[in-house]
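Students often ask why we bother encoding 3D structure as a string. The short answer is that it lets us treat folding as translation between two languages. Here is a chain of 792 residues written in the first language.
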Amino acid sequence: MPIDINRNCRQFKLTTILKSDETLAFGHMDSRWEDEMKRLGSTTALVALCASWGFSTYALAQSGGTGQAAPATADGTETIIVTATRRAESVQKVPISITAVSGETLREAAIRDTQGLQALAPSLVITVSNSETTGGVVRIRGVGTAGQNSGLEPTVGVFLDGVYLPRSGIALNELVDIERVEVLRGPQGTLFGKNTTAGAITIATKKPEFDFEAEMFAGAGSQGSKRGGFSITGPVIDERLALRLSGSLNQRDGYVDDVKLNKKLNSRDRWLLRGQALWTPTDKVSLRLIADRSQKDDICCAAPYVLNGVRAATISSLGGTVFNPTREADYIVATNVAPTSSVEDQGVSLELNWDLNWAQLRGLASSRTFSSLRNADGDFSDVDLTNTLNELTEDETQTFELTLRGTAGPVDWLVGAFGFDQTFLQSSSTVLGADAGRFAAALAARPTIIPLYAAGDGDQLRRFDLDASGWSVFTHNIWNVTDQLALTLGLRWSNDEKTGGGTFITRSAGSCTSTLVPATLRLICPTKDYQASKTDEKTSGVLAVSYEVSETALLFASFSRGFKAGGVSLDRDAGNRSKATFDPEESDSFEVGIKAQWFGRRLRTNLTFFDQTYTDFQRVVFTGTENLLSNQGEVRSNGVELDTRLYVGGGVSLTAATTYNFAKFGNEVSDVNIRGKQLNAAPELTTQLGAAWERQIATGLTGFGRVNWRHQSKTITGGDLDPLKAQPAFGLLNGSFGVRHEGSGFEVSVWGANITDEVYRIVTFNSTLQAGSLNAYMGEPQTWGVEVSKKF
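And here it is in the second language, the structure alphabet:
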């Protein structure tokens, strides 16, 4: 007898969710529907079918959309639905180490952008240095790829509504109108378009809906911050065409004082707009069109001195400002050029989902353009030594992905293909400043060489270009051997081709040829143009086994191999080396874990042991004059992750998560100075404790609150692992409290970030041309705000 999907979905009772790190909760059902579900195979199957037919109030899509948060069950139990495997499944049934965070949780935790996600996922670290354009790095389990060389691909992939975002400047953006975020740990390649070696972050925005909904919010806070936004959705044609429009504005004054320019640095001025259309021409076909555009005009990022070396006296003798002791804890600098960053990003994507009866077809095509303009004081002092001017970055990327998924007896199979084409261009000028001659003369004790350093000498044009393309085929299959035992086999074959190089127009300073000038003081001298190409192909995959010990306990083990292509190094010195290319990076990952729920599902404990080995690790280090890129042999990341959640009762839930991780260079590395050392920005121990509360405090009035504390152990914040660049252990406390009036839809909340006003370094680096001195990009100080929202 065929199952009446429409009838079942209408009567399937969606119950409520605790506002913590859950995505969806599906609660109790009549015994009639439990019998029907058994015929379908699982709760997940019914949920997916309901979503595809559009009768559930939550739209689940193979691309990764789960529904919005619903209220909580009386006993606090839940089933969290995620789409990490391109299938709607309970997070407790997926043999993957994953953190799932709902959009409501992001909002209540005052997480406004991608950087803030690390507050809720202990294995995730996101750092930003000179700008989000090139200085952003996303790390999972201690491993990530520094972005200062634009020829590199990220180790951790970020996917927005299924679309791969190739650069940190695109990925590190505002989180607006978000349905869900999933952080997947370990290599990913048999499910997502682009292969990654350390993990993936998938961000799903809210879809258009066929019921009218609207929301507006506005807020203000410390540092002159102003933030506002809106979302509106509803039908144009009932059950056939729905639209959604959302946007945000985020402005903030700077928190770093520049005493020379008499200006506040590290300010923000950003906006984002996103429009969507969902068309369902038939009950089996849906098309989702998304277009977005964002702009950032920031004065960022300042880097105070944290250590004065021997050349600090020279800076002072030239009339420069030297703070002794340094003033990083007061967020004070002195520069002669304000660091500005202007970014424009826009994209469009089209997703097709088609129920072919025997299989589900999904197609996804996208096109994104990204451009940025940056200016910076090259030496971070108010002595005019070097300046980087008009650094223009342009990136155009097109992707296409096609997947087909179905079942054959006990096997749930998926096959797919992915292709991308990318064009990248970066141009800038890096020139000597007006004080370069006096600075060099003071160091060499030769006043006669001052005329050999003319202001404006150096690279009048520094141009890098890269054309990249690739394609791959992949498959991901789950064989349900028994009702309890399942095997997963995924394979991927990929091919990547890259061609690029550098062109330089240099006005040679006299210092580059004069015998009076020591070699160490020959600055920005002519270098070679170069062009190179690199082609890589590789087979990678995953093998996993999972066993349901009971309905509330799952054991799993997996082996996966990740692959990240090599490429052409886009740095000034590449043409002078024996080769201008770098090799691919590979990773082998072993995981063993258990996912369990106790005491009527009130307590959840997920425990994972992992061991990942990277070969030909791609590493970038700034020496004080240039960024050096190299393949550094072996890196090993191994440890344990524990994630727990306890529903106490009375609307109170507690969370605790910890990652104990050794991410170290192996013995087979080119640089003997880093053998056996912990990677930079890779804390051995990270712990997060949280509490969430929500309950009715008066008729029609609900109170809620959330606090989260993230503590990490000592790290080295410099790529060269210099002990002087150590950041001691520290903790960050964030929180929010508010009230919600159900009848009117009004909500008022107060929030705070870094409540205890911790002072900490994000990235520490060698000061330009100043041996022994160090600068650092600092974490944000204490911030707070008030926000009011209204739902219609």
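Translate back mentally: The chain has two domains: 5-153, 156-179+183-791. Keep this in mind for the problem set.
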